[in-house]
Design goal:
Structural class: mainly beta
Radius of gyration: 22 Å
Shape: elongated
Number of strands: 23
Order of helices and strands: EEEEEEEEEEEEEEEEEEEEEEE
Oligomer: single chain
C-alpha cells in the first residue's frame, strides 16, 4: 500500500469553500426493457481546483465524474450535489489522501477480497491563517476517485482473470473528527472496498461464467476539506443516517436528520462518510456469493435553510443502490454521516447546486447479442469515461 501525504497538491483558501454533498450515477441503456448493469472498475465524483480572487463576490471549481462499463457499452448522465459558503475569516484547506494497493481473494467456496484502509492526515499549522489558534475545525469529504485494474501476471495460471471491474458488496468512505495541536490539525481517513463473486458466478451457468479475479490493483483518492474559524464562530454537529432496503427497489431510501446548530445564523452541511453493504438474501448455496452487478447508486442529501429560531438544520437524505430484475436480489444497508456547519450572520450560503456530466462507452469485446455503439450523439455525447464540469458561485455583499 502506498500513502501519499498532504503536500503541494493541497489548496488553501480564506473566505469560502464549495461543499460536496453526494452523487447520483445510473447506467441508462436498456435491452428488452431491462437495464444493463455493470461491474465497478472506476467511480469518480469529486470537487477540486476551488478558486476565487474574492470569495465575497464569486468563486469557481471543477466537478469531476468518471465511471467505466468494462466490455459492454452504456451511457449515463451523472449528477453531483454541492453547496457554497462565503464568510469573513473562514479558513478552508483542501487536499487528497491517495492509496495504491493490490488485494487478494480468499476462500474457495465463496471467494472474496476485502480491503480495509486507514491513515492519518496531517494539515500543518502553516496551512492555516494566523488567527486560527483556539478556533473550531471540521473535516468533510470532497468526494472520491476509485479505479481498479486486473493484471494477468498477478493471477493464478489456472485463472488468468476477467475484466478490470469487480462485483462490490461493500463500499464505505469516511473522514474523522479533527484534533488540533501546536503543529497543526490531524484527522483519520478510511475506506472499505469488499468484492465477491455473484450468485450466478458472473454470468448465466452453465452457458456463461465470468471468473472471480484472484487479485486486483487499485488506486483510490479520498478528497477532503477542512474548515475552520475563530473560537465561537463555527458551530458543528455530526449525525449518522442509517437506512436499508432491497436493491430491486429503484427508488432511493429516504430519511431526515435534524442537526442542532444553536447560536448560528445561517447553515449548510457536508458529508463526512457514506457507504453501503449487501447482505445474504437467501438460504440456498448460491446466496453465499454477495457481489452484484450495479445499475445505479444514489448517496447524497439536501437541506432546507437553517431554522435559526429552533437552532436546527433539517437535512433530507437519499440512499440507494439499484440492480435490475436480471440481477439476483439482495438486502442493502446504507449509511450517511452528515456534518452540520453553522456560521455567523455575515456569512452567505448558496445551496442546492447540481453539476451534470455525460459518460458514454461503446462495446469493446462484448458478445454479438449485446454489442452497442451508441455514443457520439447529442444526448449521450462522445465516448468518454471521465468528464469535468466547471461550477461557479456568485455571492452578493
Amino acid at each position: 500500500m502506498r500513502d501519499v501525504s498532504d503536500d503541494g497538491s493541497s489548496e488553501h483558501r480564506y473566505g469560502g469553500v464549495f461543499l460536496w454533498q453526494g452523487f447520483e450515477h445510473e447506467w441508462l441503456r436498456s435491452v428488452l426493457g431491462f437495464s444493463v448493469p455493470h461491474r465497478v472498475s472506476r467511480l469518480d465524483n469529486y470537487i477540486d481546483r476551488q478558486r476565487s480572487e474574492d470569495w465575497r463576490r464569486d468563486a469557481s471549481a471543477d466537478f469531476h465524474f468518471g465511471q467505466e462499463t468494462g466490455v459492454d457499452g452504456n451511457y449515463m448522465q451523472p449528477i453531483g450535489r454541492y453547496a457554497a459558503l462565503s464568510a469573513a475569516h473562514l479558513c478552508a484547506h483542501s487536499g487528497v489522501a491517495e492509496f495504491a494497493w493490490t488485494d487478494e481473494g480468499e476462500g474457495k467456496r465463496f471467494p472474496q477480497a476485502r480491503s480495509d484502509l486507514a491513515r492519518e492526515v496531517h494539515v500543518p499549522a502553516t496551512a492555516l491563517s494566523a488567527d486560527m489558534e483556539g478556533g473550531g475545525y471540521v473535516a468533510v469529504l470532497n468526494g472520491i476517485a476509485l479505479r481498479s485494474r486486473c493484471d494477468p501476471a498477478k493471477q493464478p495460471s489456472t485463472s488468468p482473470g476477467n475484466s478490470h471491474g469487480f462485483w462490490p458488496f461493500k463500499l464505505a468512505f469516511r473522514v474523522g473528527d479533527v484534533s488540533a495541536s501546536a503543529d497543526g490539525l490531524r484527522f483519520d481517513v478510511s475506506a472499505a472496498i469488499h468484492r465477491a463473486w455473484t450468485p450466478m458466478r458472473g454470468g448465466l451457468p452453465p452457458f456463461e461464467e465470468k471468473p472471480f479475479n484472484h487479485r486486483l490493483d487499485y488506486e483510490l483518492e479520498i478528497h477532503y476539506a477542512v474548515l475552520g474559524m475563530a473560537a465561537g464562530h463555527l458551530v458543528t454537529a455530526r449525525e449518522r443516517v442509517e437506512l436499508s432496503g432491497s436493491v430491486h427497489d429503484r427508488r432511493p431510501r429516504s430519511g431526515r436528520v435534524t442537526l442542532p446548530l444553536d447560536g448560528a445564523a445561517v447553515g449548510s452541511f457536508g458529508i463526512a462518510g457514506f457507504g453501503f453493504e449487501l447482505k445474504r438474501s437467501g438460504t440456498a448455496e448460491r446466496f453465499g456469493h454477495l457481489g452484484r452487478y450495479i445499475s445505479g447508486m444514489t448517496l447524497g442529501a439536501d437541506a432546507a435553510p437553517l431554522d435559526a429560531d429552533r437552532g436546527v438544520l433539517d437535512v433530507d437524505c437519499s440512499l440507494g443502490v439499484w440492480c435490475p430484475k436480471t440481477v439476483v436480489n439482495s438486502h442493502a444497508d446504507y449509511f450517511l454521516d452528515v456534518v452540520g456547519i453553522g456560521l455567523p450572520e455575515s456569512a452567505t450560503v448558496l445551496a442546492g447546486g447540481r453539476a451534470r456530466g455525460k459518460l458514454c462507452s461503446n462495446s469493446h469485446g462484448a458478445p454479438f447479442f449485446s454489442v452497442w455503439n451508441g455514443c457520439d450523439d447529442s444526448e449521450r455525447g462522445p465516448e468518454c469515461r471521465c468528464y469535468t464540469v466547471p461550477i461557479r458561485a456568485e455571492f452578493s455583499e
